[in-house]
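Dear colleague,

Thank you for sharing your sequence with our group. We've completed the structure prediction you requested, and as agreed, I am returning the results in plain text so they can be pasted directly into your records. Please verify that the sequence below matches your submission; if there's any discrepancy, let me know and we will rerun it promptly.
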Amino acid sequence: METLLLGLFYIFSLYAFIPGLISRLFGFRVFKKGIAEHEISLTFDDGPDPVYTPQLLDLLKRYNAKATFFVVGSSAEKHPELIKRIYEEGHLLGIHNYKHKTNWLMRPKTVTKHIEMTAKVIKEATGQDAHYYRPPWGIVNLFDYTKQRNNLQLVLWSAIFKDWRVNVGADRLTQKMLKKLRGGEVFLLHDCGTTFGANPTAPHEMLTALERVLDEAERRGIRSITIQDMIQHTAQAKNEAIAALQQPGSSQPQAVRKGGSSVPVLPWYKRLIVSLWLLWEKVFHVMFHLQTTDNPDPMFHFRKIKYSGAPIELTTGDTLVKGDSVLELHFDNKKLFQLGSKAKSSVQLAIQLVRMTEKALPELAEYIQNHPDLREAKALYGITMINRGPEQFGFSITDLPKGLFATSTTFYLKLLMSVIHPNGRERVKAHQEQMVPKILVIPTQTLISRFSQQGGTVQGSKRKPVTAAAKSEEELDGKNDAELKASLPV
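Please find the predicted structure tokens below.
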């Protein structure tokens, strides 16, 4: 029995769970987010609905917004006039199975039949073939990947709002949607509330919120386009980036305009590394009980542990020895990646990190000061390759003792540096001798006295400004890494 259950688990993992995971995390064989400066894609699932779909079409027409409707075949068959109207008003029609059933619980042949039946309904109503498919709940199985070869593009989303639940309400829904209102986003919304798990009147709340969002989008100069147009815009942006990279004298990473800023288009292997890394980051935080300050978007995470390394002389004259209580510091690596991805140069990345550290350390000091169990820690310490310039914040730098831990840490950090840094692998290759992890330490009382309000130096005149942060990016843009005295903090 145990062998049978294990076999079923392996089969399910290969057929359903693993394909779903890699599609969601890595975007494998699916389109989920575009590259555009002033365009988003509104997509609607589960319709058509005889009550709410006409209201939605009226609203979209009022704002000249184009959308993509992933329709359920059995509903479309009952309301061909709505399918025809969707098409005639310039929107795109996609397939959402004939019945709203998960692909995990259907054989490949059954899924194919659902797709073919829905495609036939769309063709009969519009005279056009459907080329876009979104499985219910976005759940794919192993054989769904073959559908792309049959001229059918799998489409997921980059923003989902639980609008199928009426208790979310129009106000909260509006707030959630406005937070995601930026170029390239693919919104998932629902114009029908009769599917499993949905509330029948939920689309009413969605329509109220959508009107507010469309009004704000119009004010910002953002428009909604179909998925087909978004895919074309994205392909064009990537091609332009590749062409720019191939120009003589170009040494910058491949980049495109995304949401108004220059962002690298990472190759698939880097996306894989980043996705796995950020997934591990979440697991690590849970497993090792990492804490943060009250800031919802922190720069540092930490945990209280017993120090187990070699003795370290502290700036206070004391010595950190094995068994002492310390706070182990960790960068928020997602924030680091976002900064590195958007930075145009090493100098710009350095300036941004210095400024963020200047803001984060007072928050951290204040939090520790207000929590006696943390305040009793002897020091804060971390291991990082970003270790030039931390003395200005009160940290001391110590070599990491040679050994297996140092070797594995060096490999891990070099891998991450090649992904985070604006110049990526070139930077690591060119500066091998500098790519050495260091231990950074600051006594807890030093941190509190320098940065907490109780220490009197957060806003006071005693605290000296950081040189690199005070200078403008224009002043430093011409300097290289070696010339930047206070380039990278902790």
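Summary note from our side: The chain has two domains: 21-230, 266-483.

Kind regards,
the structure core
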